[in-house]
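[Q] Does anyone have a clean structure-token version of this?
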Amino acid sequence: MQGKHSFRPKALAIIDLDSFVAKDHFLRRIDGVLDLSFLRELTAPCYADGQGRPSIDPEIFFRMQLVAYFYGIAKDRRLCEEVKYNLAYRWFCRLYVEDDVPDHSSLTKIRDRLGVEIFETAFRRIVQQCQEKGLVKDECRVMTDATLIAADASLNSLAHKDPEQAQQEEAAQRERRGSIDGKAQRTLSNQTHCSRTDPDASLAQKRGTPRQLKYKVHQTIDADSRVILDTEVTTGARHDNQPYLDQLQRVRDRYGITICEATADRGYGS
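[A] Here you go.
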């Protein structure tokens, strides 16, 4: 039939991956500023050169983490799937069409292997690159805010810190579960209880949201470019203003910045 298109799913083709990413695409603009070549040298002590199976390039790993952050992809499984099918993501992560995307389990292992210190060093190097490109000025305005993040632990994981009280609560819970209504109410607080699965998380609540085990992320950014200058993670119970002055001091000391103006909401007004 005239005009009918015959689709051949297994047909071979030569693809210019760069041509699929628009000139004004967000990831292309980021790629023009970002140089992650330093990561191989930074992470070298974490790998045994020439031993075992070939490792995943640390630059690919970090680029995938950036894609996850930029596009709000919270789960490693979904991140690997998105990078597999999205050509712009593949281009940014330096993965050709025929390249295998790292498995989600590998991302977890790499994250644990590198540790906090390497992530912090990489973060500071990237901010310094933003300074070199003029995105962060020597004299700038900053804004600070904190966000609650749900921990991967349920309220059922909370146990009393006192062993004797913990046994009594557990016995009471079993008894209530066997009752008709099945309800098991407990009085919980950060002073008396701690999660068995995530001891670093704490009970926290924001108006309009349920009370959960949470963490709190404190961030200071450049008010003009919106580049994040410093991030600190605490328990959900830490008040916004407690790490505030130390965070501003870190920004000044690490990057040689003069803070002309600091903005924060009323949670910091004490």
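[Q] Thanks! Anything notable?
[A] The first strand starts at residue 139 and ends at 150.
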